[in-house]
Write a structure and sequence with these properties.
The chain is 15% helix and 19% strand. The protein contains four helices and eight strands.
Amino acid sequence: MQRIMIEKEKCNGCLSCTFACMVEHNPYGKSIHDLDLTNKENEGRHFITLDYKRKPTPIFCRHCDEPECVLACMSGAMAKDDSTGLVSYDPQQCASCFMCVMSCPYGVLKPDNAKGEFVIKCDFCGDRSTPACVENCPNKALHVMEVKSQ
């Protein structure tokens, strides 16, 4: 299975990955000119936080081998595809209980800022060969790597 790998020492916190994710998932078009940064519905599927030394740290869904979010999801909105290893989220099935958010051991999942009804989660840009965040990282701090399932 493939995962997004982070070389933290190369990340300078420029937010290019987050911005690329926002453009990729913008419902109003895939052009930078279509993106309204004041609209709370335009959220990146990952985020960058500062560690204890105030160094930027990108946070992505790890698509865990045994995802706690899938086990905690009572509605079936979270599911793991055994062939790809990716954890998917179906907002149509979501009951907005946010048990998946509370159960994620990495603190990656979050409720949407606009309505607090959906979960914001990396979908690995399923319709692309390379996720937008990886493709747009100017420092090459992100890359896709094939890893073995445990």
